[in-house]
Design a protein that fits this description.
There is one protein chain. The chain is mainly alpha-helical. It has 2 domains: 41 residues, no CATH class; 43 residues, no CATH class. Helices cover 30% and strands 0% of the residues. It is built from 3 helices and no strands. The chain is globular. The two termini are 17 Å apart. This is Starch debranching enzyme. It comes from Oryza brachyantha.
């Protein structure tokens, strides 16, 4: 989801695996050379609670988040403030 080598419209979805020169695919190739034979992708199904329209997704300004004290309630509050409109739902 944070791989800047993947087009913005493909990030966070299975379409990202079609970007053959992305950092993620290059890493998977290295793992294959090292002997990895299988990858289990999770979640492997669509969460109905995540809006398919990416223009509706909210995200935290990571530069602003980094300015807050590590492990602070302020960081948590920033995440909580957008959690109903972000593209993540891990069940």
């Amino acid at each position: 989801a944070h791989d800047c080598t993947v087009d913005c419209n493909s990030r966070g979805g299975f379409r990202a695996f079609t970007c053959q020169d992305s950092a993620g695919i290059r890493h998977l190739r290295k793992l294959a050379v090292a002997g990895l034979t299988h990858v289990h992708l999770l979640p492997s199904f669509h969460f109905a609670s995540v809006d398919d329209n990416k223009s509706n997704w909210k995200s935290v300004d990571e530069a602003e988040l980094a300015k807050l004290p590590p492990g602070s309630d302020e960081q948590q509050a920033a995440i909580v403030s957008i959690q109903q409109e972000d593209p993540y739902n891990w069940g």
